[in-house]
Specification:
The complex is a heterodimer of chains A (about 130) and B (about 600). Chain A has about 130 residues and is of the alpha+beta class. Chain A contains 4 helices and 6 strands, in the order αβααβββαββ. Chain A has a 5-stranded mixed β-sheet, with helices on one face. In chain B, a hairpin with a 5-residue loop joins strand 13 and strand 14. The chains are: A alpha+beta (about 130), B alpha/beta (about 600).
């Protein structure tokens, strides 16, 4: 890992990652890849997020879907754990709650493959700060 | 790739569900079918929109239009007007109560979104084990800005002007705390992050550490620069293994990038962070006890002054802030004091994270601007009370807080309002109670916690709380008397005035607030020997209403202690001497013949 020696270095890294030109890692092009984020805080893991994450990793590969599965922190929807966010290319991210293996399969088949929403998505009910200086 | 070009999202949250969202979905689907649009438009049921007051909600995507208080028979207009003709259905739009103008587009209406995430900005967005994702969302940019463009007094001024107050519970102004630590001259100073989250029902600190550990590291480094410290310590509970693991990963990654360590950003500033584990004693959340625990001493508080800012860790000036306080700092630096101080109320700025728990539909973490009312948090974001029961009380501030009632629902939440109402902010746990909760038992529960967690150093807390607990126990067992209520109050007031640290000074709050707000319930316990909520086993009696009993013997057969007697087709009778009040008979009876009285 290169050392960050100045504020300019830091900004350069930020721009690299934002534009997806990060050559040090597997290139993630948000235009063509499905991004799956599994909420893996203590609460999520306790309600079964780990096998769900493994399922997505395994099944995207097996079903030939080019995508990236990552973990993330708590989304705040404790009542609906495990929660998973799916970002399809050129679409707003969608959060699915109460994800078990059956539902995970449905998400892949219906939403990721066909772009059809399924019942029980969790609408965004908050605002956040926009990421710019 | 999708065959659908439009989506209708119907809110299926619990309270909308109660008002027929299923029927709305069916009608919309029928209507679309009839118009030959079912291949183009998809109707789905979603989770709660957090706008229950105006439910059921139907949102049209991608137009981003909200329809409120939709009835099943409105399906036709939505399909015919909006979908076919592309016109908004005016009467179903939300009308801003101030201007009385219709608001449709959710992007331009703050009303639809009560939550504002500053502290939780990255939680659930980034991979907490990847520093690059944090950097992509402006991570460490505040730190860079501070080191290269600002002097320590500049930074302190920004924090002071922002009006941020400590999120650990007491609400001490953060900037002032930093300034005092800055002014105390010493070769060695320390920055401490208090991650000893101990209130029952509070889990926001854990979520931040697990979801966005770098925000805390960055803020600690900023604080180190501002007060002149080069080491930081995070005091985290050993019961949070995942938080610890992610903090360690985060610290390692920051060191690899040179964002922690020596000569950061080439400015000559050195700062590093290490972890200290707590064993989970509640009192160690108090800053002097926390420091002693980190020094390897007993986790006991000492009298202030001296404040940690004068003589803290190893006798050196030390600045202690809570996780949530730190997590907001980078945003305040980047967005400015002005921006932050516009959010919130006059004396409480910014946002507060609450952990919603108890008898509420949407249990979870919410972050709202200070000044949001309890009603908005509980009935809109929280989705209301479970199973349509009646709201009774909300407990804020954990064992140091109090129980607020229906009359407080429209109270704008901030530090001072909560204290004035007899509770406090605390770390932000919010436990909602319904009609089935007995308030005397609730007070007893919190007292049990304090008795267990009292360190025993000062007698008001050690002995006083024990006595309070004994009195409450007597009352719930039906052995209390009216003078006991005065005894409870007097003893509570003495403990408040004389205990050594914050734990003891606030521990009687649950008792005092329930005495104030639910005195009739206490009176019912001591005078009528009845528990109105039917929770205190010694004060209730299962009773068979003779008129309703048909003599089916179902109750007698399930009674584990054979307390029910009676022949087939004759009226049954429960012997209160034998009954263990397990409730099995009540569940079994099909004729509503058994009641608790």
């Amino acid at each position: 890992m290169p050392q960050i020696k100045s504020l300019a270095d830091l900004k350069k890294i930020r721009e690299e990652i934002r534009t997806g030109l990060d050559v040090r890692k597997k290139a993630i092009d948000p235009e063509s890849n499905v991004q799956v984020k599994v909420a893996m805080a203590t609460c999520g893991i306790a309600s079964g997020a780990k096998p769900i994450m493994e399922f997505f990793v395994e099944q995207l590969d097996r079903r030939n879907i080019s995508g990236v599965v990552t973990q993330t922190g708590c989304m705040g929807y404790c009542y609906a754990e495990p929660t998973v966010e799916i970002k399809l290319p050129a679409r707003d991210p969608v959060v699915f709650g109460f994800v078990d293996l059956k539902r995970a399969d449905q998400i892949i088949e219906k939403y990721i493959k066909e772009g059809e929403l399924i019942d029980g998505i969790i609408p965004v009910n908050y605002e956040t700060i926009d990421s710019k200086e | 790739m999708s065959k659908y070009s439009m989506h209708l999202l119907v809110c299926g949250g619990t309270s909308c569900h109660a008002s027929e969202s299923d029927a709305i979905v069916w009608n919309l689907r029928d209507e679309l079918e009839a118009k030959g649009l079912s291949e183009k438009v998809q109707v789905i049921l979603t989770g709660c929109f957090g706008f229950c007051e105006k439910g059921p909600i139907v949102k049209v995507m991608p137009d981003n239009i909200f329809y409120v208080q939709v009835k099943p028979e409105d399906a036709q207009s939505i399909v015919e007007e909006h979908i076919i003709k592309g016109k908004l259905v005016d009467r179903l739009l939300y009308h801003d109560p101030k201007t009385n103008k219709p608001v449709g587009d959710s992007k331009h209406a703050g009303i639809f979104k009560k939550q504002l995430r500053i502290v939780l900005r990255n939680c659930g967005f980034i991979n907490p084990e990847n520093i690059d994702e944090y950097i992509a969302r402006d991570g460490y940019h505040a730190f860079g800005k501070v080191l290269t463009e600002m002097t320590p007094p500049d930074v302190i001024k920004v924090i002071k002007d922002s009006g941020q107050r400590g999120r650990g519970g007491a609400g001490f102004p953060t900037g002032l705390k930093w300034e005092i630590a800055y002014r105390n001259k010493s070769e060695e100073k320390y920055v401490v992050c208090n991650a000893d989250e101990g209130d029952p029902g509070a889990f926001m600190d854990r979520s931040v550490l697990e979801g966005d550990p770098h925000s805390v590291l960055e803020a600690m480094a900023i604080c180190g620069y501002s007060i002149g410290a080069s080491s930081g310590l995070i005091y985290v509970r050993a019961e949070y293994p995942l938080a610890i693991r992610r903090l360690k990963i985060a610290i390692d990654q920051a060191r690899e990038y040179g964002l922690l360590g020596k000569d950061i950003f080439g400015t000559g500033f050195n700062f590093d962070i290490s972890l200290r584990y707590g064993a989970g004693a509640f009192v160690c959340g108090e800053e002097t006890a926390l420091i002693h625990s980190m020094e390897g001493l007993r986790g006991e508080p000492t009298i202030k002054p001296p404040f940690p800012a004068e003589a803290g860790f190893r006798g050196k000036p030390t600045n202690v802030n809570n996780v949530e306080t730190f997590a907001a700092i980078p945003v305040i630096i980047l967005k400015g004091a002005d921006w932050y101080s516009k959010i919130g109320t006059e004396k409480s700025k910014g946002t507060k994270v609450f952990a919603l728990a108890g008898k509420i539909n949407n249990v979870g973490l919410v972050e709202v601007p200070m000044g949001t009312t309890l009603r908005e948090v509980i009935f809109e974001i929280g989705g209301g009370i479970r199973q349509g029961k009646k709201f009774k009380s909300v407990q804020t501030g954990g064992p140091s807080g109090g129980c607020l009632t229906e009359k407080h629902l429209d109270l704008p939440i901030d530090f001072d309002n909560l204290v004035a109402a007899g509770s406090m902010m605390g770390s932000g746990g919010m436990i909602v109670m319904d009609e089935d909760d007995c308030m005397v038992s609730v007070a007893k529960f919190y007292l049990e916690f304090t008795v267990e967690e009292s360190c025993g150093k000062c007698s008001p807390c050690r002995i006083g709380n024990k006595r309070l607990h004994e009195l409450l126990n007597q009352i719930t067992e039906g052995k209390g008397s009216l003078p006991d209520l005065d005894r409870l109050r007097n003893m509570s007031l003495v403990i408040k005035d004389t205990a050594l640290c914050g734990l003891g000074q606030t521990s009687p709050n649950p008792v005092l607030s329930t005495l104030d707000n639910f005195r009739d319930e206490y009176v019912a316990h001591v005078s009528d020997k009845k528990c109105p909520a039917g929770k205190c086993k010694n004060l209730m009696e299962y009773y068979i209403i003779p008129e309703n009993c048909v003599g089916c013997t179902a109750c007698a057969r399930v009674c584990p202690v054979n307390a029910i007697s009676g022949q087939r087709k004759e009226i049954h009778y429960i012997n209160p001497e034998v009954c263990i009040k397990c409730g099995a008979c009540l569940e079994k009876c099909k004729f509503d013949a058994i009641i608790i009285r």
